[in-house]
Every structure is written in structure tokens, then in C-alpha cells.
Specification:
This protein is mainly alpha-helical and 79 residues long. The protein is built from three helices and two strands; from the N terminus they run αααββ. It has a domain of 53 residues. A two-stranded parallel sheet has the order 1-2. α2 crosses α3.
Length: 79
């Protein structure tokens, strides 16, 4: 699938609105704490730990992977 120039610009403009948050020692320590509470894959753990450390809401459809962790979750497909 290829994007038209207008679609490519729209996606690039949308992505430019996002803030990139680098991993940190604090996020790594939160990953360890989370793993003690729940068996969670490393990719999901880094994402949820980043949200936890930065006081952010985790937006995901896959809420079951994060149940039991102290994080605010928003499922955008749940109405």
C-alpha cells in the first residue's frame, strides 16, 4: 500500500504531535516492580512503565495484559 502525498503529509503531521519519551533508569526499575506483580512481556512492560513513571494514561485495546498494575487505562474502542 502506498500513500498519496497528501496522506503522507497528514501522517507525518500527526506523528509530529507526539512527544518521544526515552527510557530511563526509573522506567527500568518500574519494569522490575511490575514483573514482580504480573508476568508481562518486556515490550508491554516498558510501555506501561513509561506511562506509570510519567503519570500518563495508557491507551490500549489490550487491557487484560495490564490489569493489576497501578496505571490508568483507556480502551478507545470501549463505549
Amino acid at each position: 500500500m502506498t500513500f498519496s502525498q497528501a496522506e503522507e503529509k497528514y501522517v507525518a503531521d500527526l506523528l509530529n504531535l507526539f512527544k518521544i519519551i526515552d527510557t530511563s533508569e526509573e522506567i527500568a526499575k518500574q519494569c522490575i516492580k511490575n514483573r514482580k506483580v504480573k508476568k508481562i512481556k518486556i515490550v508491554g512492560n516498558i510501555i506501561v512503565s513509561t506511562a506509570m513513571v510519567n503519570g500518563l494514561t495508557l491507551v490500549t485495546r489490550n487491557i487484560k495484559d495490564f490489569n493489576g498494575l497501578d496505571v490508568k487505562i483507556l480502551n478507545p474502542f470501549e463505549f
